[in-house]
Amino acid sequence: MFTDLLTPEVLIPWLAAMAFGVFVGATPGLTATMAVALIVPISFHMSDPNAGLAMIIGVSFTAIFAGDIPATYLRIPGTPASAAATLDGHELAKQGKGGFALMLDLLCSCLGGLIGVGLLILVASPLASFALLFSDFEYFWLGVLGLSMSAFVTQGSTGRGLIAAMLGVLIGTVGMDVVTGSPRYPIMEELGSVELMRGFSFIPVMIGLFGIAEVLRNIKTDVSWSESSVEPSATPLSETVLAMWKYKLTMFGSSVIGTIIGALPGAGADVAAWGAYGLAKKTSRDPDKFGNGAIEGVIAPTSANNAAVAGAWIPALVFGVPGDAVTAIVLGAMLMYDITPGPELFKGDMTQVRGIFGIALLTQLLLLPAGYVGLKAFGVLLRLPRRFVLAGVVVFSVVGAYALNNSLFDVYVMLAFGLVGYFLESKRIPLAPLILGLILGELVERKLRTGLISSGGDFTPMFTRPICIGLIVMLVLMLASGPLLRSYQGRTVDA
């Protein structure tokens, strides 16, 4: 399976594509989807189809990991899937443990990806079949379950977390109706703004909330502008491995969760990261540490998001249904290579399938050297004086927001939400649930309304379908156990 892949004709473009993925993933606003879209035309010029597929798969995994680098050091997610890394990863960086956090990211991304690919190989068909059982109502409850995670990814008041989540949902309603395509607010028709009709793109909002708001916070804080922004720190490999061994169950469980969520079309690595983070906090012996530099808070999301990338290949390969935007692009590329995803791909000669599995496995191993070089390169940049780093953050934030649609409107949105993020944090309202609400709000609304249209307005299937009942039970148990857990912790402290 590996012999045909370990040749210069395949390895050289493969490693070059992974280096490109590190650069794109570490640049706020340049998403993994964009990296894959840019690499696909180049891959068509490869004489060996394995080289083209290796470039595409390599870019998708490395970009997801590299997004954690600026999220940890600068509190700016490189990709949406790295937003959860702005919590505990950045707190560790402020404590002088940024190198430790990113070594955890790198090793857990590798192992999470290996677990995800292993599950892809072992249980692709059963998981994909289960995903196809989901109707619009199941996706609605899955979205509501994800939104409820805002109560558990929030440091401090649960009420503030829910307020932030609902604010994110409200921001997501700007634009056109997701079902009818008509403008939601009359003022948009009066202004005749095409940009407002499109709504607020997620990337500029995210960059503003985490990037510009962080710059404003640094300006407000009395800091030395000549010193380094965050001093990169070296961490012995043994210390990182010991931490991973201590929280091995968190890593393995998050990887499994990420694979399962990734296998659900439309969920994505960002939802997987937040879901794993929420569950890790929920099941932790010391949940109060989350948001203050918890090692589990670093391990859970980074293990889940890379596993979710592998999980998204389950419905893509077995049924030809893309699990996310990246696999949607990849499916088109595979058709150009005369590879038709679907059940027929697994019948007869399995050479092509084994080649794809081999590429996915080796990519996780190649992620170690590629990611390590990326960490060292980013560490050099962080040794620059703080004023240069913050100026670079502003420049890359503007470029990242503009590059999405080549629109100055997105730049204005980014700057506006920078002010919003700064204001919310000054009132101790967390930003993470807002991002979660922005991601899932549109999914919840669209699935509910299209489900009701298909059922003729009948709400009964929402509460009678077996998978819906299971998701409702999970939601009730999760919400009900919150007060019980806090009560137990209170009694423990008093004792």
Looking at the structure, what is the overall shape?
A: globular
- Tally of contiguous helical segments: 23
Number of domains: 1
From the alpha-carbon coordinates, what is the Rg to the nearest angstrom?
A: 22 Å
Number of strands: 0
Unreliable stretches (pLDDT < 50, length at least 5) are 485-495
Structural class, from secondary structure content?
mainly alpha
Layout of strands and helices, then pairs:
Elements: H1 8-25, H2 32-43, H3 49-66, H4 68-73, H5 88-94, H6 98-132, H7 136-148, H8 158-172, H9 186-191, H10 194-198, H11 202-220, H12 237-246, H13 248-262, H14 268-283, H15 295-311, H16 313-319, H17 325-336, H18 351-382, H19 386-405, H20 408-426, H21 432-454, H22 460-464, H23 466-494
Helix pairs in contact: 1-2, 1-3, 1-18, 2-3, 2-17, 3-15, 3-17, 3-18, 5-6, 6-12, 6-13, 6-15, 6-16, 6-18, 7-21, 7-23, 8-21, 11-19, 11-20, 13-14, 13-15, 14-15, 19-20
What this model shows, in words?
It contains 23 helices and no strands. The chain has one domain (8-494). The chain is mainly alpha-helical and 495 residues long.
Please give a handful of descriptors for the protein shown.
single chain, disordered C terminus
In short:
It is built from 23 helices and no strands.
